[in-house]
Amino acid sequence: MTSTMDDAAAVFADPTAYADEARLHAAMTYLRANKPVAYVDRKPYRPFYAVTKHADIMEIERNNALWLSEPRPVLTTAAADDAARAQLEAGGGLRTLIHMDDPHHKKVRAIGQDWFRPKALRDLEVRVDELARRYVDRMAEIGPECDFVEDIAVHFPLYVILSLLGLPEEDFPRMHQLTQELFGADDEEYRRGTTLEEHMSTLLDFFDYFSELTASRRANPTDDLASAIANGRVDGEPLSDVDTASYYVIVATAGHDTTKDAISGGLRALVENPDQLDRLRRDPELIGTAVEEMIRWSTPVKEFMRTAGEDTEVRGVPIAAGESVYLAYTSGNRDEEVFDDPHTFDVGRFPNQHLAFGYGIHFCLGAALARMEMRSLFSELIPRLESIELAGPPVLAATTFVGGLKHLPIRYSLR
Question: What global pTM score does this model have?
Fold first, then answer.
């Protein structure tokens, strides 16, 4: 039993586990039933408690006064933890919204919040629909086969979010590559190198790019999100250089990469569940619930970490002040107590209380935009799709934070 428990808990400290779905879900199912709060002590990471039940994850997210994002918002190696802390103490490093706690988090979040409110998104919807048609047309042009991730799913949300920021189109490929290197540090295909220094150099490249952008937008403000960030203020003072550059990084990376993962994961689910694709063809009104199911199914953000601000417990397990928990969103989104037949892909699933956008004060800033992009793309694609099948094995990225399909080879015909 101990060996089985240890092996199951070890998936959270193994980036390759997220590229092996059978192993991952078997381990998470076992932990939910037998050890829903599991202690994990595996190098090169510092110890943590993996929280695998939906209700516990929500309760921790809800109590942000007790459970803090700082100093360990995501799972990284002990060496990376130390390097990040040293950089921040020296006045540099990365400090995005996911690193911050209230009240500072709320004030910084407000700088970009208006760009993701319903009115702003309604104004953007026509453009998103145009882009969806462009990329479905591109599928038709390059068919009858393509790698849906590399040819379509990457580019559509990348174009949307970087256009919203106001970046020039010639810089989009650079942003895509840097995003792959940042989130793909554990993946042999995506990472820049194997050393911590090489990984940190990716961040420095981001900061160099966005430092120039900040200077430009402060000198000549424009009507875009980049200008809003560059000229944002907290308590009457301009954002620090670190907070400004970090704001750009989180919007420019998570703002498209997570949507790419949900789009490609959603299409794969439809290909592998043709009965559900047929349901969508027969009843296009299901597109809203289908999108939520695609997001639950793929869960692009695998985890966030929280650190106890004082001694407490989770499901009877004592956790001391300063100890950390790993919020296993992928597991919470397959919790048998919340979802009927959680390992069944159901485009009509309702209700669907998935955790893929987080919960509480850190609920994803761009959730409504991601949903709109997915509705737009699949509303355009599905009526035009005459046939579709896999043209090779899907390939998932190794990760402990953000990730999904790297390659989805498909064979298809479009009207």
Answer: 0.95
How would you class 241 by CB atoms within 10 Å of its CB: exposed for 0-12, middle for 13-18, buried for 19 or more?
Answer: middle
Length of the chain: 415
Whole-number Å distance between alpha carbons of 349 and 367: 19
Q: Are 40 and 50 in contact (CB under 8 A)?
A: yes
Domain of residue 59, CATH code: 1.10.630.10
For residue 362, what pLDDT band results from cuts at 50, 70 and 90? very high
Cα separation, 367 vs 356, in Å, equals 9
Spatial separation of the C-alpha atoms in residues 178 and 256, rounded to whole Å = 12
Residue that has been written with the tokens 């993996």 in this structure: 50
β-partners of residue 411 are 145, 389
What phi, psi does 414 have (nearest 5°)? Answer: -125, 145
DSSP character string of 348-360 = T--S----TT--G
Q: Which helix (H) or strand (E) holds 48?
A: strand 48-51
Structure tokens at 196: 């911590």
| Domain count across the chain | 1
CB 95 within 8 A of CB 88: yes
Dist CA 73 CA 71 (whole Å): 6
- Which region, left, alpha or beta, applies to residue 270 given φ > 0 means left and ψ of -120 to 50 means alpha? alpha
User: For the chain, what percent of residues have pLDDT higher than 70?
Assistant: 99
Give CA–CA dist 100/102, Å, rounded: 7
Average pLDDT over residues 117-132: 93
Q: How far is the C-alpha of 162 from the C-alpha of 150, rounded, in Å? A: 17
Residue whose token pair is 């919960």:
359
Distances (CA, A) of 169 to 173, 211, 305: 8, 18, 34
- At residue 339, what are phi and psi to the nearest 5 degrees? -115, 125
* Range of the structural domain that residue 191 is part of: 2-414
Over residues 330-355, the pLDDT tens digits come to 999 999 999 999 999 999 999 999 99
Alpha helical stretches, state H, 306-352 = 329-332
pLDDT over 60 at 1, yes or no: no
- Does residue 183 carry a pLDDT above 90? no
